[in-house]
Amino acid sequence: MAPVTSSLAVAAAALLLLPLTSAAPNDTFTRNGLTWSRELRMNQIQVVGTHNSYHRESPLEERDTQRTILPDTQNYWYSHPALDIQAQYQSIRNFELDIFVDPEGGHYASHLIRELANLSTTPDPELQQPGIKVLHVADADYHTTCKTFVGCLQVVKKWSQAHPDHVPIPFMIEFKTAEEAHAAMGGAAPIPWNNTELLQGLDDEIRSVFAADELVTPDDIRR
């Protein structure tokens, strides 16, 4: 198996093993067509990660309304710094993102919570563009440090390029849809992740940010 030093790994659930550092020339062995070094492997390390790594808490002006459309809203009132700040100053090496499909753009550009609170509902220009969006609960808990999937990946890639010796960073991806209850109140309708075209779009977005040699995928290590 080829050694990796600065690659990032993107996975939907778990990351398979991969050597992290260059192997000494005479300290390798081959089995089942794979060449292994005796260097540190991913199943021999532990990293610190964040859940809902993108999340920012709702502003005070939305909270009274948020209490009426979400349960236990105090559990939503927390914020993370931007992904690169987490990597740089908190040593975070595992990010979790919630993604919503938006092939035509604009599906999540306005937010029900603001309409119900009689606040400005001007559509967000960034959310009007086609592409996968990063949100926690569409229409009810939508504030993020990066609004699009590509944008979030680009933040981490920029940090990665400035720190090329980091270990592989897994991204844990949760596929989400809007809530039926909020749609019935006038919010965004759910768009399910139910066809290969949408999943291909996810793969395309990942590869629009990272080159093949910057990724660890199942095909890289499957035999």
From TrEMBL:
Lineage: Eukaryota, Fungi, Dikarya, Ascomycota, Pezizomycotina
Signal peptide: 1-23
Record-linked Pfam families: PI-PLC-C1
Record-linked Gene3D superfamilies: Phosphatidylinositol (PI) phosphodiesterase
Keyword Signal carried by entry: yes
GO terms, biological process: lipid metabolic process
Keywords in alphabetical order: Signal
UniProt KW rRNA-binding keyword: no
GO molecular function annotation: phosphoric diester hydrolase activity
Record SUPFAM superfamilies: PLC-like phosphodiesterases
Protein name as annotated: Acid phosphatase
